[in-house]
Automatic annotation (TrEMBL):
It comes from Ignisphaera aggregans. GO terms for biological process: DNA replication. Pfam families: AAA_22, Cdc6_lid, WHD_Cdc6. InterPro entries: AAA_22, Cdc6_C, Cdc6_lid, ORC1/CDC6, Orc1/Cdc6_arc, P-loop_NTPase, WH-like_DNA-bd_sf, WH_DNA-bd_sf. This is ORC1-type DNA replication protein. ATP binds at V68, G69, K70, T71, V72, Y214, R226.
Length: 414
DNA sequence: TGAGGTAAGATAAGTCACCG
DNA sequence: CGGTGACTTATCTTACCTCA
């Protein structure tokens, strides 16, 4: 077989997928099986936004573990609420902010401003001034907005109490103003909120909507919905879906993580295609599970996309040192060394000690690496860094992202 | 005493309002 | 219109602190 033939035959090979994007993380389905109650509760809380716009500012908290539908519920709610608002002639916007990428007050306010297409300079304005510009814009054009702060715990950790207060209780300062901003706050646990001052905490936790892990039966329904859209008919049987649902189902000892279940289905499909199979077999699912290995890996690669160039370079440095040493831990100093080496061969100016330390702390907070303080048997005191997942696939992903960041940066500087 | 943690101040780069 | 001061974020520098 010649090279051309290989390419052509792979491309022309039949696929089990009709529309793979349905299985993407970012896909927002029309219907949300088993989240009807949460959606209804949201609608109940946000009712005044439609019935008496401007009268009151709504803040609702969504709490639940990873992969239980918080984000997608917020998206669906935003989408549907806009439709309702349109019918009533209310101009409503939905803004979804992931606090991984916008973790300072400045970043969040800037994201809000951007969605209103306000051309606001990157530097030179305080969050306060920027917010004022946004509020004036909204008033001028009679706009209302629901702002979702996803992964809110990061915002709390990084931006701190005052920033949260400013954002969420902005109308405390202008009690006479029309209430045009509303918030949906998403977090995995309530724990971080305790670091806020009690008044702010209780304000945020007044309306809580809980998301329980999915049971096997519920996962089955979700998978069925996705399968019908993503795969050609008769390529994935109900048995396959049931198999996945029972592995992941909360009542069957799984985590109840729908995202992981969908990922399993996606990978099984990819493997089926790769093997040239007409349909997805249980065997493919098993292989997919082997690939995914740990839920951790899903969790981590989920986080990677939010890292900045230098954070990625440090992560790569840690991976390399860990592999070369064969140990389960490396010292922070080694990571720093390797990092500046990696920077130098790329002709990038390495960040200095304090910054490296901050970055590593952030990697730890995001759960990408784990650290512990050295105990006895070490000279001095140092932080020991380890990575709890297979290194090779992780490094591959990190490399991709580093390349992408470098290209992005070069584009921006032209 | 060594290795790193951390706080504070300095600097760079960017923008706005304001003033003549 | 150009200059200036005030204020922002991000980063660096420095100097001191802490613990095994």
């Amino acid at each position: 077989m010649t090279i051309d033939n290989i390419v052509e035959s792979v491309i022309n090979r039949a696929s089990v997928f009709k529309n793979r994007s349905v299985l993407d993380r970012s896909y927002v389905p029309d219907q949300l099986p088993h989240r009807e109650r949460q959606l209804a509760l949201l609608a109940e809380h946000f009712k005044p936004v439609i019935t008496s716009p401007g009268s009151v500012s709504i803040t609702t908290l969504l709490v639940g573990d990873i992969g239980v539908g918080k984000t997608v519920t917020a998206y669906v709610f935003g989408r549907d609420l806009i439709k309702v608002a349109e019918k009533k002639g209310i101009k409503l916007r939905y803004v979804h902010i992931n606090c991984h990428s916008a973790r300072t007050l400045y970043g969040v306010v800037q994201s809000i401003a951007t969605t209103f297409s306000l051309s606001i300079p990157f530097r030179g304005l305080s969050p306060r001034e920027m917010m004022l510009i946004v509020l004036n814009h909204m008033k001028k054009h009679d706009l209302h907005a629901v702002i979702t702060l996803d992964e809110f715990n990061y915002f709390v950790q990084v931006a701190g109490n005052d920033a949260v207060y400013f954002l969420i209780r902005i109308y405390d300062e202008y009690p006479e103003a029309e209430k045009r901003l509303h918030y949906i706050i998403i977090t995995r646990s309530l724990e971080v909120l305790r670091t806020l001052d009690p008044a702010t905490e209780s304000y945020i936790t007044k309306h809580i909507i809980k998301f329980e892990p999915y049971k096997a039966e519920e996962l089955f329904d979700i998978l069925k919905q996705r399968r019908d859209l993503a795969f050609y008919e008769n390529t994935v049987s109900d048995e396959i879906l049931k198999y996945i649902a029972e592995i992941e189902g909360y009542d069957k000892g799984g985590k109840g993580n729908a995202r992981a279940a969908i990922e399993m289905l996606l990978r099984a499909g990819i493997i089926a295609d790769y093997e040239g199979s007409q349909y997805v077999k249980v065997e493919h699912v098993r292989k997919a599970i082997g690939e995914i290995r740990e839920e951790l890996l899903v969790d981590i690669s989920d986080n990677l996309q939010f890292l900045q160039l230098h954070e990625l370079l440090i992560l790569k440095a840690i991976i390399r040192r860990l592999r070369n040493s064969g140990e389960s831990y490396i010292k922070i100093g080694e990571a720093e060394e390797e990092y500046s080496y990696l920077c130098n061969i790329r002709k990038i100016k390495p960040r200095k000690h304090t910054q490296v330390y901050e970055y590593i702390r952030n990697l730890k907070n995001m759960g990408v690496v784990s650290t512990k303080i050295s105990g006895k048997g070490f000279r001095g005191r140092t932080t020991l860094i380890s990575i709890p997942v297979p290194l090779d696939p992780l490094e591959k992903r990190v490399d991709e992202l580093i390349d992408r960041r470098i290209v992005e940066r070069d584009v921006n500087t032209i």
